[in-house]
Automatic annotation (TrEMBL):
UniProt keyword terms in alphabetical order: Signal, Transferase
Record InterPro entries: Beta-glucanase-like, ConA-like_dom_sf, Glycosyl_Hydrlase_16, UDP_glucos_trans, UDP_glycos_trans_CS
Annotated ranges, domain GH16: 33-278
GO annotation, biological process: carbohydrate metabolic process
Record keyword Transmembrane present: no
Organism: Medioppia subpectinata
Name of the molecule in the record: GH16 domain-containing protein
CDD domains according to UniProt: GH16_laminarinase_like (cd08023), GT1_Gtf-like (cd03784)
Signal peptide annotation: 1-25
Coiled coil: none
Family classification: Belongs to the glycosyl hydrolase 16 family.
Lineage top rank: taxon: Eukaryota
A Pfam family hit: Glyco_hydro_16
Record GO terms (molecular function): hydrolase activity, hydrolyzing O-glycosyl compounds; UDP-glycosyltransferase activity
Lineage: Eukaryota, Metazoa, Ecdysozoa, Arthropoda, Chelicerata
Length: 694
């Protein structure tokens, strides 16, 4: 479940609050220099020497090491008043010998203090692949002016050869910090889609590089020139174009420099980490050590398209997601630790789901009798979140809020900020309790079936949730919100409602929705920085590729039992794989029917065997079965013979294969999610076109 805040191009801000969920990997350190010993490690670093202004009218001459000292576990680069060559100052400039493409670059440093001192921690391309500066790029992790001790900035340079360079960055960012007084960690995360700047582990700015960065540059593909190896550069410059006289007074002289209180930068360490996914040998595609991530994955998909359009996106997240979203260019605001009924691990969540009969072999109708317990569980969590969201809303002042929740959040409703309600569940949830023209949510009943069963199921749900629904509605009213429509989870008239579901599966043929409901074929994240290669042991084997995953909760139902199973030689498994990258390679998907999995599988046009476990998975399974895109089986009662027969049926159905290929072509051609930024921009500027707050 999630709430998002967006700052848009004109500008607009979005905030998303996300619950615990699995990350697809982690930053793993691959290189580090702690500057131990008594001298610089020359296998890691080399000196650049010389003067002449360095293209910026700088005043220093860089020496061959005389201004760089390694002692007591740190590197010190000192600017001095010395006449060398034609310059009145000396300093040092170090380049790393290793280079990297993409990563998390960090340097812990204490900065100098003094007029016109210009320390920089940055990256420069190893080769001029796209031409001389700035065509081949530059990434400034940290720049700083010695007389402005509370301000830093991060910048990327690119475009055509100077003087036709282009830049993007944070501009001058002030903090309640004297950067010359103590050490701080200056960080930059660089992927093939985003570059983000961090201070002491907290992101403060991000830019998208997932596009053509400059039409005047010699680039032929998105992401250039930031797709090449870059080296570290560490230096302290003196004077130059960074200090215009109109802003910073006369150019520094040796006499003025004699008053520098601290003419050196001290660096404790520099490190490089790269994003890696788990390679543990578990027969599952999901990480069972963290909570669910389906809602967060949809939110990331939404955020990616908004950021690519120039908007700034903030997520409010629990600690389990801290640091995992910056690689997408998403700003993070951490929620306070709270005693949530959702817990902090999937094991905790699964235990509760089993207690409430959500995760069991019971039928949907039997599970409906426990809806009251589940409603109470969700309402308790929403109340805990409600107060916590007031602070980021007031602090960030978003232009629009995007949330993915199961119940109304009063602090959002009362904020007066335009709000987009995202339904990452199956679309039957959108009008639950309000519209009876389609089967009830979580029933798994057919749209062409006996409607008396629909009514019976709805009555079971209402009887179960009645008291808890009334209590939550009273809470809403006490908070100052308008009452909810009877048995409704939220009032859709107050929101622009968006959802991801392929046209070929949607229910609008039997239940058209009003103009403030907008369907997209999916809310897929790109995962373009991840890859999957068919394992070598499977490549040359005969037969079809089948992908089997029952999601986080399917994996955790029995627990991680990978040590108790030996896979046949025509099988392969991992703890986590990039599902989006896997599905494109396979012939058949066996899935739990989670909404993301259904949308991703339809995107690639693959037939499905759906073995639902709970909630909208039942609805998705039945809809896929009814529409002829796969078969529904019972995850708890299916026999080996039944499963094998279903596999053979689908793999031999050429008509279904052709139909799904056509669906895939339509979805990929339409690229409906790309239209989301314009929709939200219009909503923010013209909310009355979409919502009724009466």
């Amino acid at each position: 479940m999630a709430v998002m805040y967006i700052k848009m191009l004109f500008p607009m801000l979005l905030l998303l609050m996300g619950m615990c969920g699995p990350a697809s990997g982690d930053w793993v350190e691959v290189w580090r220099d702690d500057f131990n010993g008594n001298s610089l490690n020359l296998s890691n670093w080399k000196f650049e020497t010389g003067g002449g202004g360095w293209g910026n009218n700088e005043l220093e001459y860089y020496t061959n090491g005389q201004n760089a000292d390694v002692c007591n576990g740190s590197l010190t680069i000192t600017a001095k008043v010395e006449n060398v060559g034609c310059e009145n100052f000396t300093s040092s400039r170090l380049n790393s010998i290793p280079s990297w493409t993409y990563g998390y670059f960090q340097a812990r440093a204490k900065l100098p203090k003094g007029k016109d001192l210009w320390p920089a921690i940055w990256l420069f391309p190893q080769n001029n692949t796209y031409g001389l500066w700035a065509a081949s790029g530059e990434i400034d992790i940290m720049e700083y002016k010695g007389q402005v001790v509370d301000t830093i900035e991060g910048t990327i340079w690119y475009g055509a050869k100077s003087p036709n360079e282009v830049f993007m960055g944070s501009g001058h960012k002030s903090f309640p910090i004297d950067f010359s007084a103590d050490y701080h960690v200056f960080g930059m995360q660089w992927t093939n889609t985003f570059i983000s700047w961090l201070l002491d582990g907290q992101q403060y700015y991000s830019v998208s590089i997932n596009g053509n960065l400059s039409s005047g540059a010699p680039y032929t593909a998105n992401g250039q020139p930031f797709d090449q190896p870059f080296n570290w550069v560490l230096n302290v410059a003196v004077g130059g174009n960074y200090f215009p006289v109109s802003c910073y007074g006369p150019v520094v002289t040796p006499a003025l420099a004699s008053q520098w209180p601290q003419p050196y930068m001290q660096i404790d360490y520099v490190s490089v980490s790269q994003w890696q996914t788990s390679d543990a040998d578990i027969v599952s595609n999901e990480n069972v050590d963290t909570g669910k991530g389906g809602h967060m994955y949809s939110a990331i998909g939404i955020a990616e398209t908004l950021i690519a359009s120039g908007h700034e996106v903030w997520f409010t997240v629990n600690s389990c997601w801290s640091g995992q979203l910056t690689r997408y260019g998403i700003n993070e605001v951490l929620l306070d630790q709270m005693d949530s009924p959702l817990g902090t691990s999937i094991e905790h969540t699964v235990k509760g789901m089993k207690t409430r009969e959500v995760l069991s072999g019971a039928s949907p109708a039997q599970k409906a009798r426990y809806c009251g317990l589940n409603f109470e569980f969700i309402a308790t969590n929403v109340k805990l979140l409600d107060k916590q969201l007031e602070r980021p809303i007031l602090t960030i002042k978003p232009d629009v809020i995007v949330l993915d929740q199961m119940l109304t959040v009063p602090s959002v409703e009362l904020s007066g900020i335009p709000c987009v309600w995202v339904c990452s569940h199956g679309p039957l949830y959108l009008m639950a309790g309000l519209d009876e023209r389609a089967p009830p949510f979580a029933s798994g009943l057919s749209a062409t079936g006996d409607q008396s069963l629909w009514r019976e199921f709805r009555q079971i749900v209402r009887n179960s949730i009645k008291e808890d629904w009334m209590a939550f509605n009273d809470y809403m009213i006490d908070r100052g919100c308008k009452p909810l429509p009877k048995y409704a989870m939220y009032n859709p008239l107050h929101y622009l409602n968006i959802y991801g579901y392929p046209l070929e599966l949607d229910y609008q043929d039997i239940r058209p929705l009003s103009a403030n409901f907008i369907r997209f074929d999916n809310l897929m994240r790109t995962e373009s920085d991840l890859t999957f290669v068919v394992p070598r042991e499977l490549v040359n084997k005969p037969g079809k590729f089948i992908y089997f995953s029952l999601g986080h909760f399917g994996s955790a139902d029995l627990g991680p039992l990978n040590t108790e199973y030996t896979l046949a030689d025509n099988m392969w498994g991992q703890e986590w794989v990039s599902q989006i990258q896997v599905i494109r390679h396979i012939d058949l998907v066996i899935t739990h029917g989670g909404n993301n999995s259904v949308c991703e599988t339809m995107f690639f046009g693959k037939p499905m065997i759906v073995m639902p476990l709970f909630a909208d998975q039942y609805d998705n399974a039945q809809r896929i079965h009814d529409k002829g895109f796969g078969l529904r089986l019972d995850a708890y009662k299916c026999s080996e013979e039944e499963l094998l027969a279903a596999i053979e049926t689908l793999l031999s159905d050429s008509a279904m294969t052709d139909c799904l290929a056509e669906v895939s072509r339509r979805i990929q051609t339409d690229n409906s999610l790309a239209k989301l930024p314009k929709l939200i921009e219009d909503f923010v500027q013209n909310p009355d076109k979409y919502i009724n707050t009466v």
